[in-house]
Design a protein that fits this description.
Layout: E1 2-3, E2 10-11, E3 13-17, H1 21-27, E4 29-31, E5 34-36, E6 38-42, E7 47-51, E8 56-61, H2 62-76, H3 87-93, E9 99-100, E10 105-107, H4 114-133, H5 148-161, E11 168-175, E12 188-192, E13 195-202, E14 205-211, H6 217-225, E15 230-234, H7 240-251, E16 254-255, H8 263-267
Parallel strand pairs: 7-16, 11-15
Antiparallel strand pairs: 1-2, 3-8, 4-5, 6-7, 9-10, 10-15, 11-14, 12-13, 13-14
Helix pairs in contact: 2-4, 4-5
This protein binds zinc ion (ZN).
The site of zinc ion (ZN) has 8 residues, from β8 and α2.
Length: 269
């Protein structure tokens, strides 16, 4: 028995996955070398390795784990990119964008089924919250407890009881580039123009969030569109973040049997 991090009750805890177990199978890919394990690129420990290791720890009780699954993961798991397609991208692409920007096309949240949109918001909030309360132990990570005490509590209340999120702005981006969809990144937090930008990618989606009362470019985008969350389509492979990652992957030391494989060849499959 231990204290569940979400409901704070003393219960038997589940060994919770950081990202849904269902996501891992889509991070592997078939190549002419057979089914490959996923590749972990860690810019903090300066390494690249092939691994099937899943990030888990006792965090939630069964009831809270169920809540995460029912309100977020299970639904998002039907929308993200797999080897056979990217269902939500196909739906969105068939709709007319509400606004076009040089870097992305923005869509009205009405373009997406309300249940799907609510699940995407819930899922994103649950991943940011998890990253913030996670005990990273010796693993270096770019997030720390990135939400801070106030928003950690607000997010927990939203996840538990659906209470309103204040000063919260979310951008949900769908990647139009097929080759760079099958990735996951742990949440990171960077300060830009006086605001903290929290983000992560998972199987074709990129979630970018700003919390706090201050002005931010992201808030201006939400105000400009008149939507929150803003949903958009963009080419992730052309972002500065991805270009930086590719360059890192090209020069970083490799570990284990991955040392014998060529990342550029595999990524092109
Ligand atoms: Zn609980």
């Amino acid at each position: 028995m231990a204290i569940c991090r979400l409901c704070k009750q003393e219960k038997k805890l589940i060994n919770s996955h950081f990202i849904p177990a269902a996501a891992y199978s889509h991070l592997r890919w078939d190549t002419n070398l057979g089914l490959q394990q996923s590749v972990i690129i860690n810019q903090y420990t300066n390494s690249i390795a092939q691994t099937d290791k899943q990030v888990k720890q006792p965090l939630l009780c069964g009831a809270c784990e169920d809540l995460f699954s029912k309100k977020g993961e299970r639904i998002v798991g039907q929308l993200w990119a797999t080897q056979s397609g990217f269902p939500l991208f196909e739906i969105l692409r068939s709709k007319e964008p509400a606004a076009t920007h040089p870097l992305f096309e923005g869509y009205s949240p009405d373009s997406i089924d309300k249940g799907h949109l609510d699940a995407l918001v819930y899922f994103a909030v649950s991943i940011f919250w998890r990253a913030s309360v996670w005990d990273w132990q010796r693993d270096k990570n770019p997030y720390g407890n990135g939400l801070g005490a106030r928003y950690e509590l607000e997010f927990a209340n939203f996840l538990l009881s659906g209470s309103k999120l204040n000063n919260f702005c979310l951008y949900i981006e769908l990647n139009s580039d097929e080759k760079t969809r099958r990735m996951f990144s742990f949440p990171s937090c960077v300060r830009r123009e006086g605001s903290w930008y929290h983000s992560f990618v998972i199987l074709g989606f990129r979630f970018v969030m700003v919390v706090g009362a201050g002005e931010s470019k992201m808030k201006r985008v939400c105000d400009m569109f008149g939507f929150n969350p803003v949903v958009g389509i963009s080419d992730y492979s052309s972002t500065a973040v991805f270009k930086g990652l590719s360059e890192f992957a090209r020069i970083a030391p490799r570990r284990g049997k991955f040392g014998r494989l060529d990342l550029a060849t595999l990524a092109a499959k």
